[in-house]
Design brief:
- The protein is an alpha+beta fold and 254 residues long.
- The chain has one domain: Jelly Rolls (Sandwich).
- Helices cover 31% and strands 22% of the residues.
- It has 7 helices and 13 strands.
- Strands 1, 2, 3, 4, 9 and 11 form a 6-stranded antiparallel β-sheet that branches.
- A hairpin with a 6-residue loop joins strand 6 and strand 7.
- Helix 3 crosses helix 6 and helix 4 crosses helix 5.
- The longest helix has 16 residues.
- The protein is globular, with a radius of gyration of 18 Å.
- The mean pLDDT is 91.
- The protein binds 2-oxoglutaric acid (AKG).
- The site of 2-oxoglutaric acid has 12 residues, from strand 3, strand 4 and strand 11.
Length: 254
Amino acid sequence: MNISAKIDAALDDEFVAAFERDGYVVLRNFLSEPALDAMRQSLKSIFEVYAEEDEQIFDTVERLATKEKELFYRIYKFIAKSFLSLYPVRLECLPVVEKLLGGKVHIDIGSAVIFAPPENTRLTWGWHQETTYDPDMPEALHFSFPIFEPARVENGSMSVLLGSHKLGTLPYDKIKLADDAATSLVPRNMEQWCQDYEEVPFVADPGDIAVFHNDLIHRSNTNLSGRSRITGLVRIARIDELPKAASWIDGKVY
Ligand SMILES: O=C(O)CCC(=O)C(=O)O
């Protein structure tokens, strides 16, 4: 089967119905090996610069995240968030966006690679909805995929509350557990939502990718596997209708 036939087969009516019902679908064996490999090679090159003898990328991630936090933050900020090797995967996500959101013009709204070292709660996010991080943004979709190793409950893979996107965008509280920890915008009434919606872990092998709705409640979990989890995130918005530009005020640009 050629690539476009494979994509058409995966994005059938059943896929669309499942996405509408759950706000979350895992597409199995969807990403191409060359697209994933481009990311693996670039990530290895970045961390090799800082690796100690006999360290694998997982070990270097863990050591920098615990012992060289400032350097680790710079790797995340300047490389992992602006990583050109994410382009092939982004292009492979585009047909999914076109199928679910339609539209002719799409933009990237913060694709990145995230690192979850073992037992490290500084780099995990509590329950949140993506919409609340940029309320000006129009409709968007989010994708998560394992790059090197499978995503499993043991390595703290994210979990989602199935169908919770139907709640719409909820009011939230800003939670930051430490000065250097990630900020989570946690929806109010979480206890209620956890009772009302089933929590499902994202369990996947490299090549699989989850697509989820902007309003789906999800979180990361603690990595108990002893090995760093390295996850790719792609975020794409449909921009046919332009959002407000917060930096344009009364004809002046700030
Ligand atoms: O994979 C994770 O740890 C969390 C991912 C997440 O929260 C997100 O994609 O917004």
